[in-house]
Design a protein that fits this description.
The chain is mostly helical. The radius of gyration is 26 Å and the shape is flat.
Length: 306
Amino acid sequence: MAEVIQRKKRDFHHVSRGANAVLHTIAAIFSFLCVFPFLFVVIISLTDEKTLATDGYRLIPAKWSFEAYKFVFQSGDTLLRSYGVTILVTVVGTLVSLILISLYAYAISRKSFRYRRFFSVFAILTMLFNGGMIPTYMVVSQLLGLKDTLWALILPLAMNAFYIMILRTFYSTSVPEAIIESGRIDGAGDFYIFLRIVLPLSLPGLATIGLFSTLGYWNDWFNALLYIDNPNLVPLQSMLMRIESSIQFIQQNSANSSLSMAALQSIPQDTSRMAMVVLATLPIIFAYPFFQRYFVQGLTVGAVKE
């Protein structure tokens, strides 16, 4: 009887070669559909502007050109400085965000914490109600005095209630209470237990939150628009928006000025926009493989409830 049951289990989990080939084909098509838009953007960014205007968008353009990237890189040190600011803000911001979110989520995940419910409700309320743009601006720029500093790009995004809830659920479901109790019996303190026991078991959840935070900091441009006037502190996304605004300004005023018309003809308009997308996306693409090991496991955290 046991052999029959084992045989049925093997038959249930066994996938035939034909079905396996079909599943792999579907996965390959889906992967191609995910990657193709970005590859097409890269192709457009490397297309000659005049060829793009006459032939339209093509997978294999009649003429290749690097003029779009030359135009973007004409800013020289400004572009490199913006890259440096964005990388610094992203790295420091992600670390600060992980520290604050992981500590907050761990505290409200422990049933022994007396104010667990209060701080959970407090975090959830911030997801439902917002103080508004003007009070936030007054707090950041006047009360905290962070205007024209890198902290104005870091602190407003450091805490996220949604990430706290995800990590709290991960702690509750993936970190057994018995392990924590055994650490306390051995005389370990709360911070020692958190650093030596909880964090090593929480790498999938931390990697997921880290990736979300990294994307948030890297793509942020609105805080720079509000709080940054110093050109040396402008991040990459904000600087690319300023380049785009300059192109739009020349386009809108080209009919009133012969100088603007001459400048407009020398600017790779559509291809430069695609080049900006490529420059803003490539670093994140290269960073993703470092998170991929834990990302798939961490994605399922939100589907598990207490």
